[in-house]
């Protein structure tokens, strides 16, 4: 490749990556703040139900991604790649900004979760059209035999977007008091996105159309009905189904386990301080992100299939040992408390006439440097303790652990290993999908299996797995915290078997 063409493709990648990264930031800022948002947009009388409702709303954005793939994929194959993902960028940015402006549940009641749900659906539709366009656009600029390397730069944007969302949250928290962040500061990361979208818009508006698509359009070889040609043609439909059940389905659950499920596990099962979780996850993501490019490049040399299948197999075999080790590293049963440093501070909070909260804040210090704050709240009404839905005393307990340096770096390593699995299955996937389909229906054909695999199977993972863990805990299941892993392990195992049997190496060069 000449130096001029290298500069050209780096310009393409920069413009495409910038916009895609921002869209991922917009999409994941909601997930990164799920614990906080559950107290803002949902009833707070049942924290577990509120958190599950927040995860379900988060998942709703994933569920509609396939519809966005169909709608915007069709536009991309009819009018072009560039203009289509310009629209998706503006739609995503606008929806994210407005989420940051919605009044809380206490202010407008059930209108709050309804509005959030609608905006999440708009985000999902936008993202459904964004990724396929960006991946196709870059692949159609890449030289023959190098699609894995060049498209792998697009693959980094999802993780970079998540990382930036964590950093924006951390910076906002550091600049504001805990009370200010809880009251209004959580809205700032949503507002910031509008500035990022504007910068990306300025960059993208000067981009040229994909030369491959422009050539096909000039020769009259574009599709007249992309949906019918993609899914009504039995030959092409076979590849759509193979892409879904042999690759993207497993890739989706590995991606979300290694990043979002890990984050929720650290915060809600291990009860580690939210800022510490964001920091250690951010470190793991920084260390792991370059491997997207490494495995994308390697897939050009040895094939996409072997790398993706190896990543899935490692995840299947190692998830339970990894999460058992993570849980045990901060399990207080394995630590020694310094009893003489334990402090208990009681307080009362009057809610309204007849309602009173009795709060006990207990601080414990352990010999290894771990610090634990336990806040136990008893709800009283007319002098009697209130009952929950099961007829038991309504007592809420919130535990927050501040972990020591040794535990922090161990958890960084555990998450980093999971990110490596992510890079193996995700690094080559864009080139793999692009090569499966012809130019005239590529945007539509590759977008649907990608977003069904990631949006449905992957996007539902946090809600389904958290539900499994919660149910197992309520039922007293030993090692209840591992039960949520059966979902990604099962999906990845099914995908691994199908992929090993039916994916042929020839797919790598089918439409290269």
UniProtKB/TrEMBL annotation:
GO molecular function terms noted in the UniProt entry: transmembrane transporter activity
InterPro entries linked: MFS_dom, MFS_sugar_transport-like, MFS_trans_sf, Sugar_transporter_CS
Entry keyword set: Cell membrane, Membrane, Transmembrane, Transmembrane helix, Transport
Compartment(s): Cell membrane
Topology of this chain in the membrane: Multi-pass membrane protein
Ranges for domain Major facilitator superfamily (MFS) profile: 12-507
Pfam family, one: Sugar_tr
Protein name (record): Putative MFS family arabinose efflux permease
Protein source organism: Flavobacterium dankookense
Lineage: Bacteria, Pseudomonadati, Bacteroidota, Flavobacteriia, Flavobacteriales
């Amino acid at each position: 490749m000449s130096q001029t063409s290298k500069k050209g493709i780096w310009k393409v990648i920069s413009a495409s990556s910038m916009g895609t990264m921002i869209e991922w930031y917009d999409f994941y800022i909601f997930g990164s703040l799920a614990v906080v948002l559950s107290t803002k947009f949902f009833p707070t009388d049942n924290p577990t139900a509120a958190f599950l409702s927040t995860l379900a709303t988060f998942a709703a954005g994933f569920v509609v991604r396939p519809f966005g793939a169909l709608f915007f994929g069709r536009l991309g194959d009819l009018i072009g790649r560039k203009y289509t993902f310009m629209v998706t960028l503006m739609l995503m940015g606008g929806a994210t900004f407005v989420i940051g402006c919605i009044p809380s549940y206490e202010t407008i009641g059930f209108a709050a979760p309804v509005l959030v749900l609608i905006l999440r659906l708009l985000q999902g539709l936008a993202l459904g059209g964004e990724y396929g366009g960006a991946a196709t656009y870059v692949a159609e600029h890449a030289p023959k035999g190098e699609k894995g390397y060049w498209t792998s730069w697009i693959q980094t944007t999802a993780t970079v977007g998540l990382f930036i969302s964590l950093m924006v949250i951390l910076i906002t928290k550091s600049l504001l008091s805990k009370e200010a962040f809880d009251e209004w500061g959580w809205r700032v990361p949503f507002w910031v996105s509008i500035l990022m979208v504007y910068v990306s818009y300025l960059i993208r508006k000067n981009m040229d159309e994909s030369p491959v698509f422009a050539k096909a359009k000039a020769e009259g070889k574009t599709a007249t009905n992309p949906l019918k040609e993609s899914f009504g043609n039995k030959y092409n439909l076979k590849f759509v189904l193979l892409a879904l059940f042999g690759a993207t389905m497993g890739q989706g659950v590995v991606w979300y386990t290694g990043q979002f499920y890990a984050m929720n596990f650290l915060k809600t099962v291990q009860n580690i301080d939210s800022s510490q979780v964001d920091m250690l996850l951010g470190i793991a993501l920084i260390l792991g992100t370059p491997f997207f490019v490494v495995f994308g490049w390697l897939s050009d040399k040895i094939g996409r299939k072997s790398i993706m299948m190896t990543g899935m197999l490692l995840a299947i075999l190692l998830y339970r040992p990894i999460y058992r080790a993570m849980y045990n590293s901060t399990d207080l049963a394995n630590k020694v408390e310094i009893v003489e440093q334990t402090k208990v501070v009681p307080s009362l909070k009057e809610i309204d006439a007849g309602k009173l909260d009795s709060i006990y804040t207990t601080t414990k210090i352990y010999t290894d440097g771990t610090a634990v704050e336990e806040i136990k709240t008893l709800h009283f009404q007319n002098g009697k303790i209130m009952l929950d839905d099961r007829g038991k005393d309504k007592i809420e307990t919130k535990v927050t652990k501040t972990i020591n340096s040794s535990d922090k770096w161990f958890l960084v390593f555990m998450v980093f290993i999971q990110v490596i699995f992510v890079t193996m299955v995700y690094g080559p996937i864009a080139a793999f999908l692009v090569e499966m389909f012809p130019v005239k229906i590529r945007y539509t054909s590759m977008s649907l299996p990608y977003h069904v695999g990631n949006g449905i199977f992957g996007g539902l993972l946090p809600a389904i797995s958290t539900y499994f863990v919660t149910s197992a805990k309520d039922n007293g299941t030993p090692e209840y915290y591992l039960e949520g892993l059966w979902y990604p392990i099962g999906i990845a195992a099914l995908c691994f078997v199908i992929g090993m049997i039916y994916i042929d190496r020839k797919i790598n060069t089918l439409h290269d």
